[in-house]
Design a protein that fits this description.
heterodimer; A: mainly alpha; MetI-like fold; 13 helices; 75% helix; B: alpha/beta; D-Maltodextrin-Binding Protein, domain 2; 9-stranded mixed sheet; elongated
Chain lengths: 267, 259
């Protein structure tokens, strides 16, 4: 922590709206804490519904992140190096799922992978694979919505990379694979972690695409956000307890990433 | 659906008399106040199509009133209302859920205004050859139902119990229109929905009727919110919905049964 400069100006026209903004963001979280059912918290969190939802959320969000790392990182590199024709259009297409309402993403996924969908009818009749209403369907929905976070983070990292190191390795006879593995990847390591965590957090919070594409069934497709929504129909305190778990997870992730997000960035 | 004004007014005034306590009415007949302003109606998903039509008839009768709608699963509506949502009238698809709003002190004196019953909806072409409830228990049949927290889900559960079958659905949707949507999109082989949904979906689906002895009948209650800022118009709408010939006629046309 560097001490604040004694002469740092603090103009009221920035200070007051800024304080309003922080109150607006923080008060709802305090509200959640205030209404939390602390007495029955343990019982709620160890209930079958909560444990199953937590398991589904963890399995699917981690799987979605791993898939995003393995196919999203190479795409980010291709975009950064502008190797594919029409890179600008491709980049726009990658960002589309970021801007779409998640429920629309769910509809899009149904038209593609539903059992009468473009690819889905072929998957279902040819290979007997059914994605809607399965845990795999939840992973598909989460990957679709969350992977762009990893791709744009990684593309930025690949772009800002100093190409001279790769060039030097190349002139010294290193193969393409060695260069990527030994030079490129280590240099973008911190970005990969940040991108993966962002992607994972988005997958963890996924609701609209999941319920539209994969449905809602406890133990199969009901992730934490779906469980929160359903609990709201019957038992508000359960919904609040589950929400608190999600909030805790987000805070833990932020603290783990403090090096990158809690300090002012210069780049 | 034009109804002579005098007749409609007569129906409403009779209704007001019926609803009020006889003693109070004997003492001093309430002066008629013309309803005006805006009312917001929170209504169950299964009323999505019929209520706007009734509201159009209502605003023809009472032109100074503007009606707004908030459609969702009944339980969500009660949750919203109990949390202080600015709603004037609540119409749910179950008396059990309405009782929660009464218990929380959010509404007063609900009255039933319609009844509904269940049916099996299938995609056109009926891919799994469903012809009776027992077909839903067969392995490999994709069935969508509502979650038991919402009235259509509780009804589906009772339906399976009455038929003595165990059905493992692939999804528990949070309102009946989401079940119908999955059927129309041909993502499931069958869904348990209301007969009114079957009527509304028309040729987009095929359906199987359920024998009366096994079927579940749900009652739709309506009530004014205690915190309403427009009690005159809210009460007028509740009375109109329950007692007017035009509202009840529209309900019948959409497949609802008399309360």
């Amino acid at each position: 922590m560097t001490p604040r400069r004694p002469t740092a100006p603090r103009p009221l026209f920035l200070l007051i709206p800024g304080l309003i903004a922080i109150a607006f963001l923080v008060i709802p979280m305090i509200g959640l804490l205030a209404e939390a059912p602390w007495g029955s918290f343990g019982a709620i969190l160890t209930s079958q519904v909560a444990l199953e939802a937590l398991r589904i959320s963890m399995v699917t969000s981690i799987a979605a992140t791993v898939i995003a790392i393995f196919i999203g990182t190479p795409l980010a590199w291709l975009l950064a190096r502008e190797i594919l024709p029409g890179t600008r259009i491709l980049r726009a297409m990658v960002i589309v799922p970021l801007l779409l309402p998640p429920v629309v993403s769910g509809v899009i996924l149904l038209t593609a992978f539903g059992r009468r969908g473009l690819v889905g009818q072929w998957l279902s009749s040819g290979l007997g694979i059914q994605l809607p209403f399965t845990t795999a369907g939840v992973i598909v929905a989460e990957t679709f919505v969350a992977m762009p976070f990893l791709i744009i983070t990684m593309e930025g990292a690949f772009r800002s990379l100093d190409g001279r190191f790769e060039d030097a390795a190349s002139t010294l006879g290193a193969s393409q694979w060695t260069i990527f593995r030994r030079i490129t990847l280590p240099m973008v390591g911190p970005s990969l972690v940040a991108g993966a965590v962002l992607c994972w957090a988005r997958a963890l919070g996924e609701f609209g695409a999941t319920i539209t594409f994969a449905g809602n069934f406890p133990g199969v497709t009901q992730s934490m956000p779906l469980a929160v929504y359903q609990a709201l129909e019957t038992d508000r305190s359960t919904a609040i307890a589950l929400s608190l778990v999600m909030l805790t997870v987000c805070v833990v992730v932020l603290v783990a990433l403090r090096g990158r997000y809690l300090r002012p960035t210069t780049s | 659906m034009r109804i002579p004004r005098l007749l409609a007014a007569a129906v409403v005034s009779v209704a007001v008399t019926l609803a009020g306590s006889p003693l109070a009415n004997a003492a001093a007949p309430a002066a008629f106040i013309e309803p005006s302003g805006t009312i917001t109606i929170s209504a169950a998903s299964s009323l999505t199509d019929v209520l706007p039509v009734i509201a159009a008839a209502f605003t023809k009768r009472f032109p100074k009133v503007t009606v707004k709608f908030n459609f969702a699963g009944s339980s969500t509506l009660v949750e919203q209302l109990n949390a202080g949502a600015p709603v004037d009238v609540l119409a749910t698809a179950s008396e059990l859920v309405m009782a929660k709003a009464v218990g929380a002190g959010s509404v007063t004196a609900p009255i039933p205004f319609a009844k509904n019953t269940m049916a099996i909806a299938m995609p056109t072409g009926n891919p799994a050859n469903i012809s009776a409830l027992t077909d839903l228990a067969k392995p490999g049949v994709f069935v969508a139902v509502c979650d038991v927290a919402v009235p259509c889900g509780a009804a589906a559960r009772d339906l399976f119990k009455n038929t003595n079958i165990t059905v493992t659905p692939v999804t528990r949707e949070l309102d009946v229109r989401m079940v119908l949507g999955k059927v129309i999109a041909d993502e499931v082989d069958a869904g348990i929905v209301y007969v009114t949904d079957v009527k509304w979906a028309g040729s987009n689906i095929t359906s199987v009727t359920i024998p009366g002895a096994l079927n579940v009948i749900t009652s739709y209650p309506v009530a004014t919110a205690k915190a309403t800022s427009n009690p005159v118009a809210a009460k007028a709408f509740v009375q109109y919905l329950r007692y007017s010939f035009s509202a009840q006629g529209i309900l019948r046309a959409y497949g609802f049964m008399k309360p």
